[in-house]
Here is the input.
Amino acid sequence: MIILTVQNLQKAFGGNAVLKNVNLTLQDHQRMGLVGVNGCGKTTLLRILAGKEHHDGGDVSLMKGIRIGYMEQQYAPTGDQTVFEELRQVYEPVFAKEEKLRDLERQMASAGETELKRLGEQYTRLSDEFEKEDGYGWKSSVLGVLSGLGFKKEQHDQPARLLSGGELTRLSLAKLLLQKPDLLLLDEPTNHLDLSALDWLEKYLADYRGTLLVVSHDRYFLDRVCTHITELLLGEAEQYEGNYTAYMGQRTARFEIRMRAWEMQQKLIAREEAIIARYKSFNREKSIKAAESREKRLEKIERLERPQEEHQVRFRFTAKRRTGDDVLFIRDLSKSFGDRVLFQHVNLHIRAGDRVALLGPNGIGKSTLLKCLMGIENPDGGAVRWGANVDTGYYDQKQESLHDNKTVLDEVWDAFPRMEQYEVRGALGLFLFTGEDVFMPIHTLSGGEKGRVALTKLMLRKDNFLLLDEPTNHLDMDSREVLEDALENFEGTILAVSHDRYFINRFATKVAVLGEDGIREYLGNFDDYQARLAWEQGQQAQDPRFADMTRTEAGKEKKKLRLAKEQLKALKEAVRRAEQAVADTEEAIRRHEALMTTPDIYAVPEKAADAAREYQRLKDALAQAYTDWETAEEALNEAAEGS
Here is the structure.
């Protein structure tokens, strides 16, 4: 069933036509990814579909009654409402229905038989709506979404306006998911999510009963969530079946087929034009008529346009010399800011040719660790030792080394003054800075453009050890693919911080996970790391701490672990019982409300009064059940963090 149709949609800003002739259909329950280079109009299209932006031409048709939910990239709450209260607002219509139910109960308590029947039917209908709209389980839903998106219990009562930019993005997403619209329009929903929150969101959206249209640069996310992909290319839209990986294969095949068809038609046209020219050269009546006949046939041919792709970045990394076998030794490194310990006991040995992905939760200090290696930050303790002939190239995700008041050309040329201007401009041309673009001041550039300037400088340095901090941020998908190709062919060594799981799968041969007490290493890429984690969780593996202990010490440690495990098991059971108590009490309330809709109960005033008292008792019991559940969860979380 088609729920959305876009026909010949057009949108321009000034003289720049962003959307020229966009055609798109969206079926019920489809999960479609919207992709394309930066600036191609993806966000503009979402805003038009959400009614936030007017279009210049074409039509947008929605199925009648469809509810749209739109998540923008920027969200700013007003007032002093807490995080929990912000999400509670979603259920205001449900609370209004609950108040109406209470009012009907009061009316039914004193109504006559005829009026009671009418009120009872109204009560039953409203009760069904209340249940369907999650009236009984709204609090469970709010807590579940908050937990899934990484909000800690202590943040629930924090004023929402005090959240960071990333936390506000997550809160906006949480509100939208709780509204459960028929059509979800999401603009970069994976920004600012750590790996656990990404995993939760992907599972949530994969099971979502509505329809999804999502703009994202996270190719791993698109692979796991999407059933269809639409690409915006040169102002038009083209749809593909399957996830991102399937789209990439189909896209290449379609382009090659179109190019072959265009080339064959060009050969046919050239041959026909040559024959026509030869006939005309004979200058005879018969040959001239034949030439005119062929010209008419040639004019009727529908000319194919040469297939075009958006301009893409093209570059490669080279190293001016080789390193020794050992590139980097990190020994017992630690770093704190005030009382906050980022990491300690960090040990890492990187060898020539290693391609290491540095992972860890947000705020653990991954970027700070790279800055310590580069001498930008001073560690509190430990040692860093470099191998022989190591030349380090550093890519800073914030581009703090760029000079705002310099032009693009001067930024690069000043770093490499021995190069000729044409050489610098040639290098910038590989990163799509051509013509007057090279004279743009750095402060006027977008995040993606600044990233391309930094990559230009990194490419020209020809270092043999690259330290990359979120290098795919702000890059469109095609540029990410090219970066991955360049790193794949790089003969040096790489240490990269990244949340881009698709990128990690392409380049990494080792995963290093940074925690407060050091680094754990895993061979392979991101998928290999995930498989290893799954295996570890399913195994009763011997704790590595036992390796250097005596048998007596190991026995004592195992006993402590057994006791801790038994405590966790008991706490998990307490949480399960508390959850079940909430569910049982909610079910009891539903049954009691159904009982209160029957006319007989109001025929005897004593029965009606008993029913009202029992209903209040159940509501009090539900409130207590929620309190017990939260208490049990807090105890479990504290025990888990301490284990």
User: Anything to note?
Assistant: The first helix runs from residue 42 to 49. The chain has a mean pLDDT of 86. The first strand starts at residue 2 and ends at 13. The domain at 326-537 is CATH 3.40.50.300 (Rossmann fold).
